[in-house]
């Protein structure tokens, strides 16, 4: 007999079912809201903490105990503090003509104070304090030996073997651990914000030693600062002394060369640094200028006299001026008497003769004056010519001297430069000597260290608080890491997000560990939380298709042990309670369990029907649940998949809707078997079961993908065995509706249910 091809059945349209995408659109939350994924769900975080509360509490308690033990084992430490005030230094140059060798940025306040803090933590200061207080007297070997733990030698040998002989030999050549570093571990430098104050503290097991060390640190720091200043001026003075000796030697050498050159070239300079030739040249030049001026003046007067202008001659001769006055007086007298006498009057004739004589004398004196002017002119010209000749001669001499003075001037400039350098260095040495004697200090002790009056460390209260808080934090981190690494399904939202389909129902975990009682809970105690959950599932399935609940429902899971059989029985009970006739079919031909839950035998069942050993009416059996019949799995078959592919399955499914309103098929798990895929194609709808905190995401997703690849119609999923008040739901399953009676009757009813289940 050739079995039918199940895919052909799957390709037929399900008249009773909604399209999967339409159903998902009605039931699933809208997708594409990516912003919601980025939001932090505080409820989920709180649920994670609740699930791992004992892990968090255990880790917190462990860390708290460890911190407590370590704190109590720590030796007490005492801290003493000194407060210093550090003022800025005026970093003036030692020499005014200092030139920086390279461009450097100016030191600001931050750099200066940071430098001072590092000086306080320097090994040189630590060594001074150690030597002053005679700390660590046997620090060469004793301290190193005491610091080594009991396993240090073994570790060193192991390290030598791992690194090799060469690395071991090179390690032996390394230096010892400095004692200063050990000293600095107890020291703390704390600047006071927005001030020039700094607090220097030191911690020690001995409070008196802590006080002594702290005060000694301040004293040595101030002393080190003063010594640094003295050392800097001493270095500058030594440097200037060397430079002064060199400058003096150069000055003497250059002066000797200058004097020798002047003697050899016969160069004589006066006090005003000019040579005799230059002075003579200047004097002759002035004399020539004066002579030329006199000659031009004499020439002008002479030329006027030659042209008949007697004014100059008269101005030069007093006789002519006297004769002119006498002539003017006689002429005036003559004109006055001419009014009385006639011209031929003897008196008038005499006056006229006197006037003629004076006029002759005047003309004679004018001629003599012209000769005198000519003589002056010639004398001035001769003087000018003579001086010009001397000037030309002196020019030649001066040029000769200047040629010789080129070397002289060079030597003279060298002498002047060396002399200026020598005098400047001499002045700087005096200034450095004065600066070195100034003991001004920019560091002041504000508050000296006092004897500690309480324990600094360990701070028991703080350590215990930090241990508790840190333990809780680490516990929560580990809890969230476990939650992140745990891929089990724990929330409805996680299941919906994983499979992208709705969760039709959530079934709480039964309080009883008896699986038979859990499977019959919907029948034995309809008012229980489990009964209410299955009635809610029934309602969801009524809206799963256009025609209501699917006629043939296939129930499966990804892995075994997830409660498929109990789901089938309780789901059938819920539909039977609504008046429907339900047929349960146990198609798990490999490991059947429905007959055990309903307390039936399994001598004849589905395997007999599929192998044509029995008819459908022969294998259908009634149960204690009203309106619920069952076909058990029957004897185990060696080839279950081939049997499920036979066309006998289609004959069985024809019982709907003639004899039954609904058929519920219980199938094996999906992973590793083909049975569930075959059965999903015979059914109108498939319901995928996942177990709370048991089903893992990878197998569950793989199972769902296999159903999709087999063209199965998966209408949704169901989450089972949810704990009371399960995380992620916001409500508890610890409830049931009361339809009458009181609490006492409820308790009696529960006892009756337990007995009936037994």
From TrEMBL:
GO molecular function: ATP binding; identical protein binding; non-membrane spanning protein tyrosine kinase activity
Limits of the AAA domain: 555-680
Reactions catalysed according to its record: L-tyrosyl-[protein] + ATP = O-phospho-L-tyrosyl-[protein] + ADP + H(+)
Residues annotated as domain Polysaccharide chain length determinant N-terminal: 38-133
Major site of localization recorded for this protein: membrane
Organism: Thiothrix fructosivorans
Protein name in the entry: non-specific protein-tyrosine kinase
Entry keywords, A to Z: ATP-binding, Cell inner membrane, Cell membrane, Coiled coil, Kinase, Membrane, Nucleotide-binding, Transferase, Transmembrane, Transmembrane helix, Tyrosine-protein kinase
Coiled-coil features, chain-numbered ranges: 237-264, 370-428
Subcellular location: Cell inner membrane
Residues covered by the Tyrosine-protein kinase G-rich domain: 411-481
Membrane topology recorded in Swiss-Prot or TrEMBL: Multi-pass membrane protein
A Pfam family per the record: Wzz
InterPro entries for the chain: AAA_dom, Bact_polysacc_biosynth/exp, GNVR, LPS_length_determ_N, P-loop_NTPase, Wzc-like_C
GO cellular component, one term: plasma membrane
Family (UniProt): Belongs to the etk/wzc family. Belongs to the CpsD/CapB family.
Membrane-spanning parts: 54-74, 464-485
EC number of this enzyme: 2.7.10.2
């Amino acid at each position: 007999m050739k079995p039918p091809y199940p895919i052909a059945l799957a390709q037929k349209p399900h008249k009773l079912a909604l399209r999967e995408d339409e159903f998902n659109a009605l039931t699933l939350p809208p997708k594409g809201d990516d912003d919601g994924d980025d939001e932090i769900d505080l409820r989920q975080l709180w649920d994670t903490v609740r699930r791992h509360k004992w892990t968090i509490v255990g880790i917190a308690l462990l860390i708290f105990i460890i911190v407590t033990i370590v704190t109590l084992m720590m030796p007490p430490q005492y801290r003493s503090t000194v407060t210093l005030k550090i003022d800025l230094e005026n970093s003036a140059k030692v020499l005014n003509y200092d030139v920086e060798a390279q461009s450097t940025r100016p030191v600001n306040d931050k750099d200066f104070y940071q430098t001072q803090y590092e000086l306080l933590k320097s090994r040189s200061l630590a060594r001074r304090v150690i030597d002053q207080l005679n700390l660590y007297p046997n620090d060469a070997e004793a301290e190193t030996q005491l610091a080594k733990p009991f396993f240090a030698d073994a570790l060193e040998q192991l390290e030598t073997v791992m690194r090799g002989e060469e690395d071991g030999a090179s390690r032996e050549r390394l230096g010892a651990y400095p004692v200063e570093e050990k000293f600095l571990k107890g020291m703390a430098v704390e600047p006071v914000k927005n001030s020039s104050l700094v607090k220097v503290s030191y911690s020690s097991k001995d409070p008196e030693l802590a006080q002594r060390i702290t005060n000694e640190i301040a004293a040595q720091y101030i002393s080190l600062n003063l010594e640094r200043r003295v050392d800097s001026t001493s270095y500058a003075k030594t440097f200037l002394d060397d430079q002064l000796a060199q400058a003096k030697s150069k000055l003497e050498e250059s002066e000797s060369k200058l004097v020798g050159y002047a003697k050899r070239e016969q160069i004589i300079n006066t006090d005003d640094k000019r040579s005799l030739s230059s002075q003579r040249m200047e004097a002759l030049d002035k004399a020539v200028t004066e002579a030329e001026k006199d000659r031009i003046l004499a020439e002008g007067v002479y030329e006027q006299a030659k042209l008949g202008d007697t004014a100059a001659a008269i101005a030069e001769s007093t006789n002519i001026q006297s004769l002119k006055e006498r002539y003017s007086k006689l002429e005036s007298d003559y004109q006055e008497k001419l009014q009385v006498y006639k011209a031929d009057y003897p008196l008038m004739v005499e006056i006229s003769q006197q006037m003629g004589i004076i006029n002759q004398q005047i003309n004679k004196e004018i001629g003599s004056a012209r000769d005198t002017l000519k003589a002056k002119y010639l004398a001035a010209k001769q003087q000018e010519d003579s001086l010009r000749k001397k000037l030309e001669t002196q020019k030649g001499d001066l040029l000769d001297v200047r040629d010789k003075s080129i070397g002289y001037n060079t030597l003279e400039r060298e002498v002047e430069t060396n002399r200026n350098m020598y005098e400047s260095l001499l002045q700087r040495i005096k200034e450095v000597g004065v600066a070195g004697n100034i003991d001004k200090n920019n560091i002041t002790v504000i508050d000296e260290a006092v004897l500690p009056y309480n324990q600094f460390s360990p701070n028991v209260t703080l350590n215990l608080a930090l241990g508790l808080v840190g333990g809780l934090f680490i516990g929560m981190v580990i809890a969230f890491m476990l939650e992140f690494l745990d891929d089990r399904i724990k929330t409805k939202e996680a299941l919906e997000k994983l499979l992208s389909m709705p969760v039709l129902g959530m079934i709480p975990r039964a309080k009883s560990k008896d699986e038979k009682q859990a499977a019959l809970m919907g029948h034995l105690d309809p008012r229980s939380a489990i009964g209410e959950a299955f009635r809610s599932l029934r309602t969801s399935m009524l809206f799963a298709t256009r025609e209501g609940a699917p006629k043939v429902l296939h129930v499966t899971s990804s892995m075994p042990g997830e409660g498929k059989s109990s789901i089938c029985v309780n789901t059938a009970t819920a539909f039977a309670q609504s008046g429907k006739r339900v047929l349960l079919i146990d198609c798990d031909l490999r490991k059947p369990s429905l007959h055990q839950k309903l307390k039936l035998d399994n001598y004849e069942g589905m395997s007999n029907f599929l192998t044509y050993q029995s008819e459908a009416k022969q294998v259908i059996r009634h149960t204690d649940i009203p309106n619920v019949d069952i076909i058990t799995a029957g004897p185990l078959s060696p080839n279950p998949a081939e049997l499920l592919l036979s066309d006998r399955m289609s004959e069985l499914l024809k019982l709907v809707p003639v004899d039954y309103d609904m058929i519920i098929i219980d199938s094996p798990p999906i992973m590793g078997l083909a049975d569930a895929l075959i059965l999903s194609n015979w059914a109108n709808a498939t319901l995928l079961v996942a177990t709370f905190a048991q089903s893992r995401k990878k197998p569950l997703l793989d199972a769902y993908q296999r159903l999709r690849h087999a063209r199965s119609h998966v209408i949704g999923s169901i989450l089972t065995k949810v704990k009371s008040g399960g995380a992620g739901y916001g409500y508890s399953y610890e409830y049931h509706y009361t339809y009458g009676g009181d609490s006492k009757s409820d308790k009696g009813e529960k006892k009756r249910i337990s007995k009936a289940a037994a």
